[in-house]
Write a structure and sequence with these properties.
heterodimer, A: 244 residues, alpha/beta, Rossmann fold, 2 domains, 8 helices, globular, B: 492 residues, mainly alpha, 75% helix
Chain lengths: 244, 492
């Protein structure tokens, strides 16, 4: 599904991402963890052809993302609020995104009806533009618009960061369902080690632009990660940091 | 404490991305303010001559005293619309151990730094020195200046007080503006009372009793205190903000556009962009004002010739393309990443721009049809320039849009907002203004104006028929530049 070859990005002489090679197969659920500045978002942006890598390439389904647009048909992503058209109402935005995938408004309404629990009455028919929603609710709109697109590849950057606990649990079950039952490949970054090990079968740990660990999730993974992040501390303190 | 705030404020100014980057813009801005200042100053210097011309029968001092209050009424009206509230900048200090009084004092103090507070002095002090101090002595002149200061402070805080109230309840603004207009009308139209007489009643007496200057000073002080205590009681984020109380925002659809498929959807989005954001909306409203150009030019016999009409028509039918297009795609900067990763072909994106410009130019062309009153030729020229706008200018604007990397924050107003302005806009305006004359000019000089017009029409039509070709060119160009554009837009 995703093949990263020799990918490198340099800002002001500092290498922020350096990935010689990673392959993510169809149907995998992959979690990306790492401290602030590890290069997670930059990596995401390069996979989505938003920034130009110094060297190397990203192949989605064997096709280089740079210079092609076919991958947009089956890839849905939400990295930050910059992905939302903030002067639209959520409904208008969903219709727009649905329209891009040849879905009628009725179809979109149908789909959104299935997300009532996830929205928790905060999104639809509130008479607000997206820019007037809180960060957490904006995140809900972004995630929902991804789901609406029936993607084969779903990429989310820190989806758990701004949303409330109930929504976190609902999002987790949605993600698991997508991956296990619908075969969607998911690539998610998070600072919440509990959630990420719960949702993902494979964890990539990044440090200073390099993937230093590539582990299949098992019962010991959480401990392993906590050990890494709680550097030199007897009691591992879980630092939960919001968006970078 | 105030000095610390001020230092922070200065840093905010110099380090902000918009002010920090382009010195050229600041210089232009500086010249503009200087120009305004000189104008006002010259007006102030010759105020005695002007007053003598306007009110030839009256004594100079009498007419001067008469206009003072009128000025302050006008001043209040403009302040209500233009003066900015010094607001949310205090947000980072609210939770720190900083005395509320210090914060409020700072807010009140910085609001005095508005240019509005400069104009009354620039305008009236020269007159006071020239005429009043020579006629009635230094003490009276001082009394006048003190009264000016008092009224300025009063106006400053009164306008801010009203604006703060208006943020909580929009009607207050309408009522205040209505009352001021009513006062003006009842003087000039209904002659119920005379502001000038009322003004003279006070300032005339000031000449004989300089002590009266205390009254405006007192007014100013009371207003300051009122403002101060109001602010102190309401030092909460939601009340401080300049955001209006939110109304229910309903979803809209444009059924006609949906027939164009996803291109139509993109256009619908952009129309919403234009009307739901302050700055883009004023680009549109500006276009409506430009419609009046025709009245200015066509009614003037000296300017009522074909060459001028070409110029005026280009502006009237194309002002939106020029005004809005010069900042493309910065308008969409805040969600550009989203557009790039979603299932939109860039050629569709471009087609949507062409369609948007065509729709809005057509709208403006329809608005200008009444100018057929000045002859059918006028209408013909308007139609030709309309074709020119949707053919040539649209393509030019989009060519430059590929070279624009500056982000625009849509939520900010348009007045004196230089965000997103770069050298691009200056360069862009040259071909936009010159291109039609390169074609039309030679014919006009040889007195074959009609042939020139025909040439313009032919070139426009050629461009319109070549749209497909231009879209391909622009698309290829965009692929080379998209990373730079997207990165520029990400830079807040």
């Amino acid at each position: 599904m995703i093949e990263i070859k020799n990918l490198k990005k340099v800002y002001n002489g500092v290498t922020v991402v350096n990935v010689p090679g990673v392959e993510i197969r169809k149907g995998e659920s992959v979690g990306l963890v790492g401290n602030n500045g590890a290069g997670k978002t930059t990596l995401f942006r390069m996979v989505l052809d938003l920034i130009r890598p110094e060297t190397g390439q990203v192949l989605l389904n064997g096709e280089n993302v740079a210079g092609h647009e076919h991958w947009k048909n089956y890839t849905a992503s939400y990295l930050d609020e910059g992905f939302l058209i903030d002067y639209l109402t959520p409904e208008e935005y969903f219709y727009f995104i649905g329209g891009l995938h040849q879905q009628t408004q009725v179809h979109v309404d149908d789909y959104l009806a299935g997300l009532t629990d996830f929205f928790n009455g905060e999104i639809l028919k509130k008479g607000k533009y997206i820019r007037d929603l809180s960060k957490g609710n904006q995140c809900k709109v972004g995630v929902a618009s991804c789901l609406l697109q029936n993607p084969e590849l779903l990429m989310l950057d820190e989806p758990f960061a701004n949303i409330d606990p109930s929504t976190q649990f609902r999002l987790k079950s949605i993600l698991k369902d997508l991956n296990k039952n619908k075969g969607v490949t998911t690539l998610i970054s998070s600072h919440d080690l509990n959630h990420i090990t719960d949702v993902c079968d494979r964890i990539l740990l990044m440090e200073k632009g390099v993937i230093i660990k590539d582990i299949a999730t098992s019962s010991s993974t959480l401990n392993e990660l906590e050990e890494y992040f709680g550097v030199g501390q007897t009691i591992s303190i879980e630092t939960k940091v919001d968006a970078e | 404490m105030t000095s610390t705030f001020l230092r922070h404020e200065l840093k905010a100014f110099w380090r902000s991305k918009n002010t920090g980057k382009s010195i050229a813009i600041r210089i232009v801005m500086g010249f503009f303010i200087l120009y305004l200042f000189i104008n006002m100053f010259v007006l102030g210097l010759f105020l005695n001559d002007i007053l003598a011309k306007v009110f030839p029968k009256e004594d100079l001092v009498v007419s001067f005293c008469g206009i003072l209050l009128m000025y302050f009424l006008f001043d209040l009206f403009t302040r209500l619309q233009l003066q900015e509230l010094p607001t949310l900048r205090v947000q980072p200090y609210l939770q720190l151990p900083v005395k509320r009084n210090a914060l409020v004092r700072y807010l009140a103090f910085t609001s005095l730094l508005s240019v509005f507070n400069l104009w009354p002095f620039v305008l009236f002090v020269p007159f006071i020195i020239k005429i009043i101090s020579t006629d009635s002595g230094g003490v009276v002149a001082l009394a006048f200046i003190v009264s000016l200061a008092g009224l300025t402070v009063f106006n400053n805080y009164f306008a801010l007080y009203l604006k703060r109230k208006a943020n909580l309840n929009g009607w207050i603004f309408l009522i205040a503006a209505g009352v001021i207009i009513l006062i003006g009308l009842s003087d000039f139209f209904w002659h119920l009372f005379s502001i000038r007489k009322f003004s003279y009643l006070f300032f005339g007496n000031l000449v004989t009793h300089p002590v009266l200057a205390i009254a405006p000073l007192l007014l100013g002080a009371v207003m300051y205190y009122l403002n101060f205590s109001y602010l102190k009681d309401n030092l909460y984020l939601e009340e401080l903000g300049s955001r209006k109380v939110a109304k229910y925002k309903s979803s809209t659809e444009y059924p006609l556009l949906s027939r164009f498929g996803s291109v139509g959807d993109l256009v619908a989005n952009e129309i919403k962009l234009v009307f739901r954001n302050k700055r883009s909306k004023s680009a549109f409203i500006m276009g409506l004002f430009i419609m009046l150009y025709g009245l200015i030019f066509y009614t003037n016999p000296k300017m009522n010739n074909d060459s001028y009409k070409v110029f005026v028509s280009m502006f009237m039918t194309g002002i939106f393309i020029i005004n809005y297009g010069q900042f493309m795609y910065s308008w969409q900067a805040s969600h550009f990443d989203g557009l790039l990763v979603s299932k939109i072909k860039f050629s569709e994106f471009l087609k949507a721009k062409y369609l948007l410009f065509t729709i809005i130019s057509t709208f403006f062309l329809l608005l200008t049809t009444p100018y057929a009153y000045f002859g059918w030729k006028t209408l013909l020229i308007e139609v030709v320039m309309y074709l020119w706008n949707i053919g040539v200018n649209t393509t030019l604007v989009l060519f430059f849009a590929n070279r624009n990397y500056k982000r625009i924050d849509l939520s900010k107003g348009a007045a004196f907002n230089w965000e997103g302005v770069s050298g691009n806009q200056w360069i862009l305006s040259i071909p936009l203004l010159v291109a039609p004359y390169v074609i039309y000019g030679p014919f006009a000089i040889l007195h074959h104006n009609d042939a020139g017009l025909a040439m313009l029409a032919v070139v426009s039509l050629v461009f319109i028929f070549m749209r497909g070709f231009w879209i391909k060119k622009l698309e290829a160009d965009f692929y080379n530049k998209r990373y730079t554009i997207a990165e520029g837009f990400r830079n807040k």
